[in-house]
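Researcher: We're reviewing a set of sequences before deciding which ones to prioritize for further study. For each one, I'd like a predicted 3D structure that I can look through quickly. This is Anti-sigma factor antagonist. If possible, include the structure in token form so it fits the rest of the review sheet.
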Amino acid sequence: MGTQGIRFEAFGELVTSVDDDDGEVARVTARGELDIASSAAFGIELARLIGERGPDVVVDVSGLTFCDARGLAALVAADDLARRHGGAVTLASPRPQMAKILRLTGLDHRFAPARTPVR
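Model: Here's the predicted structure for Anti-sigma factor antagonist, in token form for your review sheet.
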């Protein structure tokens, strides 16, 4: 698979790639740290995708090495926006640490993490 149709963005310690092919669901891969330094820009990117591609977004979080409260807030805000437009944000392949954070905060029920990685 080439990089055609994929756009890369860097937000501090977080690097994302967005699959811009003509699929129905926006697919984002996040690698690095989703924290106070990167969460605002990441949230803006997710909002842009929801506005341009539709309300369903899959975020592959398998590459996240760290996620703080601001990172979780960015995901929740994006999910709120997606739900207002009839969709949802789905988290794919969370690492055990991320799964634990989701479970401890009760967000595991909200995001219902997908088990399979994004293409």
